[in-house]
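Justification of resources, computational component.

The compute hours requested in this renewal are based largely on the per-chain cost of generating structure records like the one below. Each record pairs the submitted sequence with a full structure-token output. That output is archived, and it is also reused by downstream analysis tasks.
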Amino acid sequence: MKGKYDMLWKSMLEEVFEDLLRFVDPEIEKKLDIGRGFEFMDKELAAINPEPGETADTRVVDKLVKVYLRNGGETWMLLHVEVQGENEAGFAKRMFRYYYRLLDRKSLQDKDVAALAILTGRYGKKVPDKYERRTFWGGVLYNYKTLCITDYSNDVLKASDNPFAIVMMVAKEALTKRPKNNVDEKEKKREEEIWDQKLLKQKLLIVKLLYREATFSEDKVRAILVFLNNYVAFNKQETNRIFMEQIDVITGKKDTMGIIEQVKQIRLEEAREVGREEGLKTGRKEGRDEERRLFVENLLKDSDFAPEKIASVANVSLEYVNEVKVKLRAKK
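The structure output for this chain reads:
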């Protein structure tokens, strides 16, 4: 389960990072040149793991991001997400360790570091926002920003036009208590049905907010839908089927989530290939090519997307889409 949540947060955060910054600090564009984009420094961060070899019950997602200042300079942002985290002992110390190890890296020297901790657990308010240590006449005080999702009501999040507000609504749904494992199987099923119906209503509300006035980019909508679909699941497959059907009604398209999940899986497989031995890459190439071809075929058959849009969604060239289209016609 840990890997699933990590992957969901990591991929989603990269799509909505600028929205996260605007949510945390509406004046952030006075300081940062967001138009220059961001660079995610996962390798740098892995090299300074403050607790190598240690494991914890708390699921953690850390990201290091290079951002650009309005004055032309560069700085670093450490983004720390506690996924379903509790008030973990040593949390503040962990944040401080990251800070001084980043400062000690040759490649990062003379760069400032700003840290943000996103707290998605029920007890996020209890998590400290600073690390302090004093001995006699000396000491250290390190402050970082925290964002606790339980500080925001759903009404406030619904009224926001920021995509990250919707992400927070999804994360809050994961805090909803599921039915207990009652001894009475009949009662348990009844409670699961009630819970599923409440979750279905809330998930569909989130989907409608995503498509409200069509203000969000396709990549952001896709990332948040994948997050919503996988982060908090229904008890029954039947409820999930109804959810999928209702998404198609809202979007006016066929198999919306099926297509989006295929995109996610294809890109995940491509990401897994990075860094592997060339022989292994070559060995899997034919399988990936076949999967990509079938995916493009499905888009051509089951969606009303234009060839240009299919090329963008499948991450292939327009020429490739047209070639598949010609071969598909030949089959008929």
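The longest helix spans residues 185-210. Residues 270-284 have pLDDT under 50 and may be disordered.
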